[in-house]
Write a structure and sequence with these properties.
binds 6-phosphogluconic acid; globular; 7-stranded mixed sheet; 19 helices; Single alpha-helices involved in coiled-coils or other helix-helix interfaces; N-(1-d-carboxylethyl)-l-norvaline Dehydrogenase, domain 2
Length: 510
């Protein structure tokens, strides 16, 4: 097809895996795209792909060799989508677009995994040059192509212009079942269902929510990996046996995309050795930083998110392969717990419940973190809507997000998911199995930081009394940090004169 010059609806910069697939998704939904990437090969790749997939008689994607050319190919006011790595590349492109003549009424949408605070600063920095809007995207390559989950935020005026486009390309959920509507073919467009795109709030809010999505993603993945480890090293099951168990669990409350892909990875045989590929993959986890940001933010906001933090630690400790190899020769394994065939089945069932309970805790932590962050930053987040846009398209899509959405619909002020009736019942009925699974794994010497830190989180939340009384005593002893008393009026501060013989308790004037 020849590329006659027409004015395009959208400019797109950054044609990596996510960018290329978002372009094709936009094209399927009827938008013409002016596409630019620093690599001309990538520009050509998206044009060629569009030529293969395009069933209309006119090209849908127009290649550009610079930001200036891209602007000249766009309808005004210009709408430009960025899919470039977070950090300096985003600023570099913004500066290039300013040089190319972008106008104050033009919109740039940052779809990368930018640090939310950078987005806040950028919106301000560029306010006289253009409107910076952000929309985190989740769903990986396939999601970007056939319907991602989108977390837009920034100026409501910009959202009015972006909304129809975003709702068109987003994943869709069946309003009756709450389940994703399948879209798998190029050219296929889904016009019914609830789009997984909702306005999150002012600048930064969307990237914050996506950051927490990724923190939960880390926790969810780690929980699955720990269950795999227990089944493999505790019960000595092989990859196919573990895949069978996971596949069965994927029909129940653990039904999720991450379980589904774990089954596929476990079943996959390497093409060169014809043995399970997973056994050949080096056990050193990579990370790009969004899980770490979530854990850091949870510490800053003062919202416990131990399962998420553990998942980050688990990736870090996995990267110390040489240290672990050395230590493995120094420390003996615990005495193996031998279980009968019937007991094996029980361990499997206990592990299922442990995973489900740990998963509930990880999501509870993520949602409470968003709640406290929203309070701190003055955002009004709608948690039912956030749970709903995570039901399809994104990496953590899972059947039980419907239950989370319902919990927040029952009570939009819910302090923590664990307090919702549905989750109270789920946890109460499964906690015994959870504990047994933890005991079994611990006795086998299988590290289960995410499963067990979730249990400690749950036990802390459900404990009316914690040992912080002794801790306050310690702080008062060495630092005169004072404490409150349960037998006196709340808010009154006391101190013991520890260094005197009398060690009198005194009321401290505030
Ligand atoms: C998504 C993913 C995506 C990416 C993360 C994870 O929602 O589509 O979360 O954003 O896969 O960056 O990366 P790491 O595991 O490398 O941190």
């Amino acid at each position: 097809m020849t590329q006659n010059k027409i004015l395009c609806d959208i400019g797109f910069i950054g044609l990596g895996v996510m960018g290329k697939n978002l372009v094709l998704n936009l094209a399927d939904n009827g938008y013409n795209i002016a596409a630019f990437d620093l690599s001309n090969e990538k520009v050509q790749a998206v044009i060629s792909q569009d030529e293969v997939e395009n069933t209309t008689n006119t090209p849908r994607v127009y290649g550009c060799s610079s930001c200036t050319e891209l602007l000249s190919q766009l309808k005004a006011p210009h709408l430009i989508v960025l899919s470039v790595p977070a950090g300096a590349p985003v600023d570099q492109i913004c500066e290039n677009l300013i040089d190319a003549g972008i106008l104050p009424d033009d919109i740039i949408i940052d779809t990368g995994n930018s640090l939310w605070i950078d987005t806040v600063a950028r919106e301000k920095k560029y306010q006289s040059n253009f409107l910076l809007f952000s929309s985190a995207v989740s769903g990986g390559e396939v999601g970007a192509r056939f319907g991602p989950s989108l977390m837009p935020s920034g100026s409501p005026y910009a959202w009015d212009r972006v909304k129809p486009i975003w709702e068109a390309i987003a994943a869709k959920v069946d309003t009756t079942t709450g389940k994703p509507i399948e879209r798998t073919q190029p050219g296929q467009v889904i016009t019914d269902g609830e789009p997984c795109a909702t306005y999150i709030g002012p600048a930064g809010a969307g990237h914050y929510v996506k950051m927490v999505h990724n923190g939960i993603e880390y926790a969810d993945m780690q929980i699955i990996c720990e269950a795999y480890h227990v089944l493999k090293s505790g019960l000595n099951l092989n990859c196919d046996e573990i895949a069978d168990i996971f596949a069965e669990w994927n029909n129940g409350p653990l039904d999720s995309y991450l379980m589904e892909i774990s089954v596929e990875v476990l079943r996959h045989k390497s093409s060169d050795t014809n043995t399970p590929l997973v056994d050949l993959i080096l056990d050193k986890a990579g990370q790009k930083g969004t899980g770490l940001w979530t854990a850091m933010s949870s510490l800053e906001v003062g919202c416990p998110a131990p399962t998420i933090a553990q998942a980050v630690y688990a990736r870090s400790i996995s990267s110390f392969k040489e240290l672990r190899t050395q230590a493995s020769s120094l420390f003996g394994s615990p005495q193996q717990v031998i279980v009968s065939k019937e007991e094996k089945q029980q361990v499997v069932e206990q592990l299922h419940d442990a995973m489900y309970c740990a998963k509930i805790c990880a999501y509870a932590q993520g949602f409470q973190l968003m709640k406290l962050a929203a309070k701190e930053h003055g955002w009004t987040l709608n948690f039912a809507s956030i749970a709903k846009i995570w039901r399809a398209g994104c990496i953590i899509r899972a059947a039980f997000l419907q239950s989370i959405a319902q919990a927040y619909e029952r009570n939009e002020d819910l302090e923590n998911l664990l307090l919702d009736d549905f989750f109270v019942k789920e946890l109460n009925s499964r906690q015994q199995n959870w504990r047994k699974a933890i005991c079994y794994a611990t006795m086998q010497g299988v590290p289960i930081g995410a499963l067990s830190s979730s249990l400690a989180y749950y036990d802390s939340i459900r404990s009316e009394t914690l040992p912080a009384n002794l801790l306050q005593g310690q702080r008062d002893y060495f630092g005169a940090h004072t404490f409150e008393r349960i037998d006196k009026a709340s808010g009154k501060k006391y101190h013991v004169e520890w260094s005197t013989n009398e060690r009198k308790t005194i009321l401290v004037d505030s």
